[in-house]
Amino acid sequence: MNRRHLLAAAAAALASACTESKPKFAGVDVTGAPYGKDFNLPDADGKPRALAEFKGKLVALFFGYTQCPDACPTTMAELAEAKKLLGAQGDQLQVVFVTVDPARDTAPILKAYMGNFDATFLALRPNEQQLEQVAKDFKVYYKKAEGGDAKNYTMDHTASTYVFDMQGRLRLYERYGSGPQVLAADFKKLLDAA
């Protein structure tokens, strides 16, 4: 090999060594997205909660409501199972549920609902103005479905999960129905990279 080939090979090796390999996720990588930077909402006890208080943990943020017939209980069950699949690392996952139906999702109902899945899952109960703002901040859709009455109705809503890394940066948008194994694998990649 002549000197020029050696220099080219050395430069290529150096360039590949300096290139940071990005993990491949099953969810949509939204790292650097200009939305979903933070939230400041009351929990079921009325205590204000913000994303910053969870630094050092992976945060899975989901918008839903307790009387949801399918997407919400499925997602909560998948997140609970994903947490179990992480083993000891599961303690580093904080699931946060934001109700899009604060009129019916009272504090006792939210606490009982979260307890059905995992005692560490946290429910947030914004008022209508706070909900409107956080939905705008996270590009979340929600609307009372047509039909039904004042007490019996459903809510149309975005059914995906936002995932923040341990530094509080929005990283992933996990689609509804991904399954606990897929979620756990993506969570593990973020936890291992911390």
Structural features, described:
The protein has five helices and ten strands. The chain has 194 residues and is α+β, with helices and mostly antiparallel strands. Strands 1-10-9-4-5-6 form a six-stranded mixed β-sheet. The chain is globular, with a radius of gyration of 20 Å. The model is unreliable at 1-19 (pLDDT under 50).
What's the topology here?
Blueprint: H1 3-18, E1 28-29, E2 40-42, E3 48-50, E4 58-64, H2 71-85, E5 93-99, H3 107-115, E6 122-124, H4 128-138, E7 142-144, E8 155-157, E9 161-164, E10 170-174, H5 180-193
Parallel strand pairs: 4-5, 5-6
Antiparallel strand pairs: 1-10, 2-3, 4-9, 7-8, 9-10
Helix pairs in contact: 2-5
Q: Kindly name the structural category.
A: alpha+beta
Overall geometry: globular
Low confidence ranges: 1-19
How many helical elements?
5
Measured between the Cα atoms of the first and last residue, the distance is 41 Å
Task: Kindly state the number of beta strands.
Answer: 10
Order of helices and strands: HEEEEHEHEHEEEEH
**β-sheet strand percentage:** 15-25%
Major sheet strand order? 1-10-9-4-5-6
Query: Main beta sheet: strand number and arrangement?
Result: 6 strands, mixed
Helical content band: 25-40%
Radius of gyration: 20 Å
- Average pLDDT number: 90
Short characterization:
The protein is built from five helices and ten strands. By secondary structure, it is an alpha+beta fold.
